Amino acid sequence: MQNRPQKPVTTTIARAMLAILLLSIATTSFALLTLASSLNDAEAINVSGSLRMQSYRLAYDIQAESPLFNDHLDQFEQSLFSPSMAALEHWTVPADIQRHYYSLINRWENLNPSLATENETRFVHEVATFVDNIDRFVFELQEFSVIKLQILSITGGVGLSLILVIALFTIHFTQRKIVSPLNQLVAASQQVQSGDFDVKIEVKSDNELGILAGTFSKMAAELGKHYRNLEQSVNEKTRRLRHANESLQVLYNCSQELSVTRLTTQNFKNMLDTLVEIEGLTAVTLTIDENNGAETVIKAGISTERHWHHHDLMLDGQVMGQLQWQETLPCPDHALIDNVSRLLSRGIYYNRAQKQADQLLLMEERATIARELHDSLAQSLSYLKIQVTLLKRQLAKQEHEHAEQIIAEIDNGLSSAYTQLRELLSTFRLTIKEANFGEALVEIMKPLDEQTDSMIIIDNQLSSLNLDAHRQVHLLQLIREATLNAIKHAQADEIIITCQQEHEQVSITICDDGLGFDQSNEKLNHYGLAIMAERADRLNGEVTITSEPEQGCCVTLSFLLAP
Known about the structure:
Helix content: 55-70%
Strand content: 5-15%
Mean pLDDT: 77
Structural class: alpha+beta
Order of helices and strands: HHHHHHHEEEEHHHEHEEHEE
Largest sheet: 5 strands, mixed
Oligomer: single chain
Shape: flat
Distance between the termini: 65 Å
Radius of gyration: 54 Å
């Protein structure tokens, strides 16, 4: 209650603004009413003025016996009783103008029967008097319109003068009660900003700004006390922040070394070089335990005769190696050393995992090569061996005709085996230069497109984000195998490759409009279904073939993306 102003500035300004608003509303309302009542004046003056001309025109029509007399008579009555003239009966119109208008109507009603009884000479003699009455009526309308405009001007001038007076008062009040105290507050704020908290504001008012000035002075005094205390704590926190920033920089540099595609000894060496830059460390040694019992030792810094501290590098309960360091004053941050040790443990684990993944991928590809050799060249060579045995028997029996047939089959078998060998070599020599699945798919289809007259159409809606290198290789090999089978056997006009993904479900289809085949025929294996099925197993998926004779063939691979 003590801080409540006795004469609020906002109340005074609000009253002044309210007065200006009320004056504006009153002046504007009166002007609008006056203008609204004057909208009909111009038309009434124009119509009443035209009555004079029409009166003389009727007199002329009578003397000239004009055939347009009746039309002109109707026009006169329409003008006399027009809406603009009828609007003169409003309460805002003076009674004298209304009486004069009624007298004109009565005068016309007295003259009109003489026109109907063909006593036109009376109208001709009295038309001048009737026009004089119309002239006086028009003059009264003009005078009434002028009076309204004068009243409107006087009212607007008075309202504007009052608004101007109130506005000047508001400006003077604002300058004295608001602007001047605010300028002192701004100067005091600048003084506080420069570090001088001994400020004095000479504002003696019982309004909001007076209370603000007193409160500001008290605040400045309190700030001076706190400022001196904060300087000491800021210096201490600055030192801690600098140390924390250095620690974060070390952790960032170490994490950057772990973000590379393939970890090497040099990455671990860079991490140790970063660690040895910590204040208080002189030398660091990393010992990595190998599975065969050997050790890899990486060193950084300059070792001395000081005692070596050590920390075992462990991950999931497994010892990866050991980190040793020598320290001096000031003592290093042991929490930072522990965090770097965890990063080193993960780095060793990732390095081992990378090597294991490379080895598994190599072994898997070797197994795939062995299976494809067995399913192609081994079977062909076994068939040729049987044919050679038959050939020896036929030659021993001197049956040359059958021998020639066997030789022809051997020749065809050798040609087929050579063709299969070339296809296998092309498959094994396949390189994937693009990391993007869509671009890699287009690249491997280019050589096949040059080998056939069929149109190969690719519709790829599959994102590369969820495909690792292992999956990408199997997908590309399977698509290539299915497309190559269609080129060799289908005699198709179009081969359409569609890759789609819906949530975690991936669907790959290779369809052609070629000859198709009977799925009950055991020669189905000739199309490489077994090889494609094995590749689908590697993806934890399933491959299916749908075909009918002369209806084309579709190879579909479906599998789920691992979470």
